[in-house]
Design a protein that fits this description.
There is one protein chain. This protein is of the alpha/beta class and 199 residues long. It has one domain: Nucleotidyltransferase, domain 5. It contains seven helices and five strands. A five-stranded mixed β-sheet has the order 3-2-1-4-5. Strand 1 and strand 2 form a beta hairpin. The N and C termini lie far apart (37 Å).
């Protein structure tokens, strides 16, 4: 695995007077089923998170190890979501930003600055910066990507029992061939995003 070289953006924010800088990321914008999750993480000045990287570049086993370490070492962390109903009502981008806002607002102690993955900032009560590919550039955002991904994957696997036959434990709601084949047999269920499905 390639070791991620993080940019010193958190240190630059501290130099500007901010003390509690959180990284923010989401998981689950692309799937055709399930809620969208977001996480916010405040890392201290020192931490030991081997192989920390964008969650998409980590194996499931690496993500599980990192999740435990992040939760143990972070100054604060939180995970939040926006529901399938909210995704359908306000669209996936706004729902993702809503989940991010909820994650940031749940931090204790609260953050005073946010570094957010992507092109857009949620409507926060604190200043922040949107950072394209922030999950591969900023340590706290990478940590948030890990927590959002592991939380969502765990939730989707649990839904396999409630909605058997769709394969949620395997594809986590993404529009794979197997998922669409299941949809042809079973039709959509309550956690499918109907505006995402093309049958």
């Amino acid at each position: 695995m390639v070791v991620c070289e993080f940019e010193p953006l958190e240190k630059e924010c501290r130099a500007q007077g901010y003390q509690l800088i959180c990284g923010v990321d989401e998981a689950g914008r692309g799937p055709i089923a399930g809620d969208v999750y977001a996480a916010a993480v405040i890392l201290g000045d020192t931490y030991d998170l081997p192989n920390l990287n964008d969650s998409k570049k980590c194996s499931a086993k690496q993500r599980d190890v990192l999740e435990k370490l992040i939760k143990e070492q972070a100054a604060a962390w939180s995970v939040a979501l926006a529901t399938v109903e909210e995704i359908e009502q306000i669209n996936i981008l706004r729902a993702s930003l809503l989940a991010m806002k909820r994650a940031v607002e749940a931090l204790r102690p609260p953050a005073d600055y946010a570094l957010v993955d992507g092109n857009f900032l949620p409507a926060l009560q604190i200043p922040g910066k949107a950072a394209v590919k922030g999950d591969a550039r900023i340590a706290s955002v990478a940590a948030a990507s890990i927590l959002a991904k592991t939380a969502r994957d765990r939730a989707m696997a649990a839904l396999e029992e409630e909605y058997p036959g769709y394969g949620f434990a395997q594809h986590k709601g993404y529009g794979t061939k197997a998922h669409y084949e299941a949809l042809q047999k079973l039709e959509p269920c309550a956690i499918h995003r109907m505006s995402f499905i093309h049958i």
